[in-house]
Amino acid sequence: MPEQHPRHTAVIALGGNALSPAKHSTIHDQFRHTREAVAPLVDLALDGWNVCLVHGNGPQVGDELLRNEMARRDVSPLPLGVLVAATAGWMGYMIQQSLENILRRNGSRRDVATVITQVHVAPDDPALTHPEKFIGHEIPPERVADLEAEGNVIKPDGRKRMRRVVGSPVPLQIHELEIIRHLVDRGTIVVACGGGGAPIYYDNKLQGWEGLDAVIDKDLASAVLARDLDAELLVILTDVDAIYLDWGKPPQRPLRTLTVTEAAKMDAEKAFGEGSMAPKVRAAIDFVRRTGGRAVITELSKGREAVRGEAGTTITAESA
Questions:
Q1: Angle at which helices 218-228 and 177-185 pack, to 10 degrees?
Q2: Is 3 part of any domain?
Q3: Where in the sequence numbering do the catalytic residues fall?
Q4: Phi, psi (rounded to 5 degrees) for 220
Q5: Is residue 23 part of a domain?
Q6: d(CA 82, CA 182)
Q7: Positive or negative, the Cα torsion across 237, 11, 41, 95?
Q8: Residue 29 lies in a domain
Q9: Beta-strand (E) ranges in the chain?
Q10: What is the pTM of this model?
């Protein structure tokens, strides 16, 4: 007898660092971390939710660029937009295999599928000419000058580590939305918008879609996908258990609930780290404002509790 289709839809955003936390993670390490990372997500599926998973690829696409540089004398390098799609493919393979194995061990026959996703952006988005998005691991000091001479932009991140930065345009629309919706509606667990999705724009001269060499923020892409899927819940998984007031300063304290107005006011006052929590909060605000749904920001291990309102920071529409 087929499983009953779940009634609720959740979009889960998972950081690429969760799958590759170390600087020199081998593929075996990444498979191991992936199995650990997706275990709490299976709980949501077993609880009767439709689940669509979006993952980041910051460390992985940075490694791909490094492989390009090291092998360019022997093979033609691939552009960044193609590498985003490539990482979405092999990371999706890891995630869907790990998810399916855990589901089967728990007696579930639900399908898992990866959709290589394109995301519409504006070709004149200012972010394309003013790169700010950090990708990859720390770059050794001796390599910085050579990379800059080749046209790469290198900046110190929040921890003073020199890293590559690239353009990160605002996601406008999910190109494969109806394919994803069809799969989700039939109960398939879908891995979509890998790495934030491959950015594309419509070229009027060519009368068709063209790719861009940029990286889309996976949290913002998750908010757009959740909005357009009519999801009731957006869960953004990170490395802290909640949003904290006065983060890093005693006495920091977790914020368990926020309205969108409160969250937006705090963001305007620069209460959140620009390269860390701020994009996640903005994605949550955008989703809640547009849908009236609920967004939760928490750490990976608390995903199931957060869905039940027992952990993390929940951002909701205005109080009655």
A1: 70
A2: no
A3: 16-17, 133, 218, 280
A4: -65, -40
A5: yes
A6: 26
A7: negative
A8: yes
A9: 8-14, 49-55, 112-115, 118-120, 133-135, 153-156, 162-166, 173-174, 189-192, 198-203, 208-211, 233-238, 243-245, 253-255, 257-259, 294-299, 313-316
A10: 0.89
CATH number of the domain residue 53 falls in: 3.40.1160.10
pLDDT tens column, 97-156: 999 999 999 999 999 999 999 999 999 999 999 998 888 878 888 889 988 888 889 999
The token pair that represents 198 in the structure block: 């491959």
| Of the candidates 234, 202, 240, the residue with the CA atom closest to the CA atom of residue 218 | 234
Q: Which H helix or E strand runs over 180?
A: helix 177-185
Alpha-carbon separation of residue 41 from 19, 60, 118, 125 (angstroms):
14, 21, 24, 34
pLDDT at 319: 59
Total length of the chain: 320
What is the rounded distance in angstroms from the CA atom of residue 86 to the CA atom of residue 92?
A: 10
| 276 DSSP β-pair partners | none
- Transcribe 214-236 into DSSP letters: ----HHHHHHHHHHHTT-SEEEE
Strands 198-203 vs 162-166: parallel, antiparallel or unpaired: unpaired
Contact in structure between 315 and 309 (CB atoms under 8 Å): no
What domain range includes position 66? 8-118+172-231
Q: What amino acid occupies position 316?
A: T
Contact of 276 with 158, CB cutoff 8 Å: yes
How would residue 2 be classed by pLDDT, with cut points 50, 70 and 90? very low
Q: Is the dihedral of CA 11, 47, 308, 16 positive or negative?
A: negative
Q: What percent of the chain has pLDDT over 90?
A: 57
State the total domains in the chain: 1
Please provide the average confidence, as pLDDT, over all residues in the chain. 89
**Is residue 124 classed exposed, middle or buried when 0-12, 13-18 and 19+ CB atoms within 10 A define those classes?**
exposed
- Residue 42 placed within a domain: yes
